[in-house]
Amino acid sequence: MLSHCLYHKYSYPDQGFVVHMLTSPTRSFLTNAYLIETESAVVAIDTFMLVSDAQALCALFDSIALPSGKPLLGIIITHGHPDHYNGTSTLIAGLKDVPVISSQGITDCIKNSVDAKQVKWKPFFGDDWPEHKILPNQWVADGTSLTLDGLQYHFRDWGAAESSSDLSITLGQQRSVVFVGDVVFNTMHGFMNDGHTQQWLAVLKQLAVELADVPLLFTGHGAPGKTAPLIAKQIQYLQTYRHHVSKLAGTAYALTSEQKICLEKILCNAYPDYQLKGFIQDGADAVAAEISEYNNQGLPP
Ligand SMILES: [Zn+2]
């Protein structure tokens, strides 16, 4: 299959599923989208941001579905950032009655931010930015499971972490794999713009306990890896980023341009093999505001 996206496959024959992973190019942030293939059907987890990337996901789906006749049973959205839901309209074009499964919090997040994201990114991506966005239309609650084509999808709704609402999905009774959206990256600088880093750290610490029995973790950005070390690395990255933002900003709610350049140098030196370094400066003000706001709590105005 020819594609401008990178393809990897992870097979679990003893448990009856295959994870097909597609990764978008750097210009669309090296995002991962997944197709879970079971005996008689396929389920998607996330749908990319750009039309061209979503078309690559369609081509991957067709390569599975055309010879086998397997339908797309549903699309699961891990969180409300456009690199994970924008492509839904492209993926379901021509298909009937495909539920888009997510949480109420994620649906609200998409509703509240979809216009602002369009204003920010449409001028940059032009026609590759999809015109129509599809909202989730089947909500799952925290701690519940769905069984799709015999495979159990278990959902945890973490509330605000990397985004304003993040979902994780564990597959099967044996809990061999977990999908955590952008709560954990692998060897990538974090997206800090939503400014919930303190809650995010608390979620990561809880994840480390709850997922201690799950061997493999699939990320929103970066290769899958062993669950415990990936979570530990993400905790350490957030602590390092917060430490340096706090040190540079002091009590200010934003960093100067010079301070942002300094922050980028420090983070690049600390994590020389990490990609997506454009995120370092971009998220600095949100984290400075979050830390200053927290430190000022309880003080008179
Ligand atoms: Zn993402």
3D architecture notes:
The chain folds into two domains: 1-173, Metallo-beta-lactamase, Chain A (4-Layer Sandwich), CATH 3.60.15.10; 184-218 and 226-301, no CATH class. 39% of the residues lie in helices and 20% in strands. The protein has helices spanning 51-68, 82-85, 88-92, 104-125, 197-210, 227-249, 257-270, 278-282, 284-296, and strands at 6-12, 17-23, 32-37, 42-45, 72-76, 100-102, 138-139, 145-148, 151-159, 166-171, 177-179, 216-218, 225-226. A seven-stranded mixed beta sheet has the order 1-2-3-4-5-6-7. A six-stranded mixed beta sheet has the order 8-9-10-11-12-13. A hairpin with a 5-residue loop joins strand 10 (166-171) and strand 11 (177-179). Helix 5 runs antiparallel to helix 6, helix 6 (227-249) packs antiparallel against helix 7 and helix 6 packs across helix 9 (284-296). The longest helix has 23 residues, at 227-249. It is globular and about 60 Å long. The chain starts with 5 loop residues before the first strand and ends in a 5-residue tail after the last helix. The chain binds zinc ion (ZN). The site of zinc ion (ZN) has 7 residues, from helix 2.
Please give a handful of descriptors for the protein shown:
9 helices; Metallo-beta-lactamase, Chain A; 2 domains; alpha/beta; six-stranded mixed sheet; 13 strands; 301 residues; 39% helix; binds zinc ion; seven-stranded mixed sheet
